[in-house]
Amino acid sequence: MGANSRTPNRHDEQREACGAATDAELRHATANAETQIFTATATVPSATLPASERAERHILLVEDDADSRACMKSLLELEGYIVHTAADGAEALRRLRNGLEPGLILLDLMMPGMDGFQFRKEQLQDPKLSAIRVVVYSGHHDVNANAALLEPTAYVQKPIDLDSFLDLVSTHCAIPRAAA
Question: What is the pTM of this model?
Fold first, then answer.
């Protein structure tokens, strides 16, 4: 193998989508863009899936930073998810109360307007929304203290390892809601 040859990996398309030349630049782009959460669905066309399985493949990404939101949405879509986005907690609640039924919510904590803490408080108080799994991510808060307070499915500290994060999303989008 020559000095410039390398084996392609699954992040090649992701780097291209975010305008990054290397994995390090991709990590830097996603870490600096205060958002790394997404809404997802699998590569199977949702119209061919039973209604109960369609929701499990959708993700609601709640992120205030537009660049981070767009980058994470692209990354998740490349992985085969259907991603819905919201710029803050209030927009996310409106979308959920208007009928969006994601299998997973990816939630940033630090946002102007309604932050992730307030969103989670209201979500847990709403019987129609409280069962939706939530993965919280943040670079500004103590993981252990907030995990107990917010009762998320998982809590991820930034900077996020992309492979581990995508594995986490895949795991929680695949679990049938009744088993959660």
Answer: 0.69
